[in-house]
Structure formats: C-alpha cells, structure tokens
Amino acid sequence: MASDAELIGRSLSGDAEAFMEVVGRHEVAIGAYLERRVGREAAEDLLGDVRAAAFQYRGTYDRSFAGARPWLYTMALNRLRQYWRSRPAEDLVPDVTEVTGLANGWDPWPAVDVQVDTRTVLRAAVAGLRPEEREVLTLVAGEDLTVADAARVLGLPAGTARRLLHQARAALRNAPEVAALLTELNSVKGSK
Fold this sequence. Notes:
Layout: H1 4-12, H2 16-38, H3 40-56, H4 69-86, H5 96-100, H6 110-127, H7 131-142, H8 147-154, H9 158-174, H10 176-190
Helix pairs in contact: 1-2, 2-3, 2-4, 3-4, 4-8, 6-10, 7-8, 7-9, 8-9
C-alpha cells in the first residue's frame, strides 16, 4: 500500500484519484474531530473546506513524512480557527443539553449524575488550561496523535509539545475540582 506522501506526490503529477485516497483514509477521524469541536452541521461544511484546502496546498506537504494525518489536522485546526473568528460570541456557547449529552426529560439516576458531574468537572478543568496546553492535550488524548504529530499540527518543536502536555496533565491532576471528583468516584465505587 502506498504511503500518503507517495499518493500526494502522484496527485501532484496529475492523478486526482490518489489525493482522494489520502483524504478517504483520514476523513472519518478529521470529521469526528471537527464534530466534537463545532457540532455535526458545521463540521460537515468545515470538512469540505479541509478537503479543498488540502487539495489546494498539497504542493506544500513535506513528503519526508509518510502519513498525512497530522497535516490534515493542521488544515482542520486552521479552518476551525477561521470559523470561530467569523462567529458571534453568543453562537460559540454550547447549549447545556449539548454539553452534557443529555436530552430533556432525563432520569436523574445516581450513576447518570456522577457521569454528568464528571463531564462537567473535566470540561471545566480542561477549559481552565492555557490554550496551547488544551490544544496539545486534545490532539494527543482526544485524537490519538503522538506528541510529535501534535507538535507538527501546532507548528511547535516536539519538546515544547511534550512540556505543554506534561503541564496540562499536572494542571488537571492538581485541579481541586478534579481531586474532589476523584474522591467522590472512589467513594461510589467503594459503596458497590
């Protein structure tokens, strides 16, 4: 099987299908990343923008990297930033039911309460991170990229990305609300 770099090279030589294969390999992951950041409807539009931008800028791809996934995440992150800058601030605040993942009329079982509390606390703790820490953490933990690939996406040296990830993990570990939540979760587990 040809690497992404080889396929991009072939697409630059006129083989349009080769580039579609690269996009096809990664569009589910990129689409899911976009959907988690802006919702399904906006993500579909942004994914089209990512495809178009990637095709337009494929000549700038560094073919010394076999896999194009981090490069496509860079395209997606750039499209997200453009999207966020273009939106009114009130449009960027998610609805409570969207954040918790619960529809109206939910049944407040204790296990559900703990899950909602967990999501809320973790989202708040992650929101408290510095933006560059949050981005590295999101790409490594949420998108399953290596630290080196996350560094490529963000245009950072790998050592800087490692430091930012370490700082993010330490900040989350030391956040008082996370510590309280862990204590609560341990007591719930212990009572079963």
